[in-house]
Amino acid sequence: MLLLIMEKKMVFDYKEMLKEALETGQTVTRSYDLSSCYDNAPATVSKMTFDTTANPPTYCYHNYQAQFAPMMFTRRQLKHLIREWIPRKQCDNAKVLIPLSGTNSFSKAFSTALGTANTTNIYGLDDDLIKVAICAVLLEREASWKFSSGSNLHLHNILNINEGCNGDGMTVSGELGTDNELRWSLNSGITKGTSWTRLLRCLFNLSRMDAIATLANILGISFENFYQLSSEKHAAELNGRALQSEDVPAILNIEGGSVVILKEKTYTYGNAGQTIGAILLFRWNDIDFCLPATVCRGELSMGKCKPTAHFFNQHLMDRHPFAKVLFCQDMRTALAHQRLLEQTRGYNPAEIIVTAHLGSDLSILPWSYFYGHDVVFVPAPTKVCMAMVKLYRGYITGAQAKSFRVYKGFLLHSSPNSDLNDHVGDIPEGEARLLREAVLLDTVEQPLRLAQRVIREAVSFDEYLAFGRLLGIFETPKAQDLPLVTTSSNELALFSPHAGNIAQQPRDLAEVTVQHILPARRNILMHGLKDAGKSFGCLEITKTLVTGHALFGCIPSNDKGNVMYINSETPKEDFLQRLEQFDIVDELGRHLFVLSKYDHAASDCAFSLTDPLFCVKIESLMEKMGCSYLILDNLTTLMKEGQATQTIAVNKVYDWLERVQQRGICVIVVHHTQDDGNAGTMSAKARGSADTSNRNHGELVLIGSTQILEKKLGNEAIQRAAAQDGLTVGICFKVCKAACVLQKKTFWLHLPLGAPKWDFLAVTRADGEEIPFTPVDYTLLADPELEADRMISGDDDTMGTELTGLSEEQRQIYEYAKKLGRLALKT
After folding, report:
1. What's the half-sphere exposure (Cβ side, CA atoms, 13 Å) at 714?
2. What separation in angstroms does the CA of 749 have from each of 441, 491, 496?
């Protein structure tokens, strides 16, 4: 009679609870079979169920202190509790990633240098075995707690199995020890154990995985709750309930004797200021990984309800809409950087916010938090993670972020296995570069400056795409617009007078060399009107750079190097003929490398500086061929129609040129002079945007024969040469910062029709007055085949007898030669 009254009272309480839940709008998700507490046969009371996060623990009103025997159960009656293990679903984003070149992984040497701590567990915990082992430990803890509190009758029913004493019967007994660990035995001690999962395996003949799934079902816990985030809201977000308790163990002793230690617990907050969960940083076998904790019914715990998908510091992103967001792909990197920033004086989250997320399913994350923010994405150090930049870009720009840029380097949260600047092994150059530029956060002394630098050096998605293709990480498609490649260094270098050789400013024309006119790491603009002789001037410069000949037969050179010549002006037959005229055909493939528009019939990119893939390939070729000079002939024909006069397009090209120069390369840009009254004077300007002139370190203006005759420029000899066959030019040094003595001076030259050498005519000042100057044509003798019959050696005391009668300028050349070394004198 007493049992009947208690059972009726329990059903009545259950109905009252259900009525209250429906009135308050609680959802229905999971059923609790209350009839199985006392009935011999299981029966479902109703299909209506409470939301796990809102439903209080289900208590059976079984008083174990009563003076009557508890109900006994058979395994058959509890068979409905059994569940099979369902493999978790893998998130497949392969279709929306950037196609990778080669394998999907970096070389073994690269991964070894970085260490697995940096290259694994990026989105949480990769190892499913450890994940299941952690789940099993937490289920054991929860089962023992619920058993001791009497809040789960299914566990008591299992320990009340008594099938009699026949041969097939099973009897179970068990109790909790002082350590809260279950101690059970079957059939009067024939089989013993200390875990709930082991008990279920023996009772129902289950595999280990099915036993874990069954115990999780009994406790109302899903395995996915330990790692898989959901976009659904939970009670902590809805009702703003304060955090009342925590059930997050500091140490987990998992199967096999391993220990998982909780290193750090970082709380996450809702927009109402309430705690909605935490990011738990664990360490196992010297490797860190993160798992989510969630607030359910005022308690912070793992696995008791599904974690809500969120971004680290998303409440700050919402509070500070104008802050720049540093988006780390690896949560551990974000946590490490955040720790450093919080310890830094002057850090203000209203200016910079660090964020990250757990889980690989990006579709469930609340991307609206990025609305209006400038976002800089920091990829994790794996090829697949780098390929996911495209996927992140789609979500972030789709949320109408103000901008999306990518940092080209890696930020490391864990120490690498070796010195990244002195790695051992067969590492490709592209991967070696990534290693050299990686930053270990633990070694950063000024975290705020690092964050500012990462933001400043970030590039657009298109530039990052080209960067990855240049390094051989991303696959290069057959036809697709690609960005300009970036080659900027990751480190800032303070000015040092000992950083390199300091060139002396020449004080006289006789001291000027080609290296003053075309110095390394500079870009020089040379412009003139149509048919002024720009391409012939380029070929003369080319000859000087690859052979060491004096420029125009009058300006000596003290060095030579390899030249990359980009020709989009002169047809193939005419260009070859001019190479033969200047006697440099044999230099093709040795020191001279030519890309011609007229050999570009079929390619995967346009022959244009506005096609980023073309720029990428130029850089790659120059690096492969060891080129020190780049000649662009000319800017108008090397850009898409009309873009040479557009400021934005021109600046984009010069941005790329500046990055090219950082490799120590001198760039000569050929362009057209604006055809107005200033043409042929010191005030002549290049056609189009003013930035075409402003962004150069030197500017040469070519004055052609037509201008010489029309404006009667120069002396009588110059005008007479301009009227003859051949090419007469005036080269006006409008700007020459490395040799200021050249500025406002014009060299007048004549190239007879078909001749390989220029005739020097005169040098004049800005007022037209001629300057005494005697050129000496000599060639560097770096190669034995360039030996001439007559040699001048700087250490030869017999030189004095051969140099009698030289002019002052010639003597200055001689003194220069003594410093330089061996020269060939041509008289």
Report:
1. 31
2. 60, 46, 40
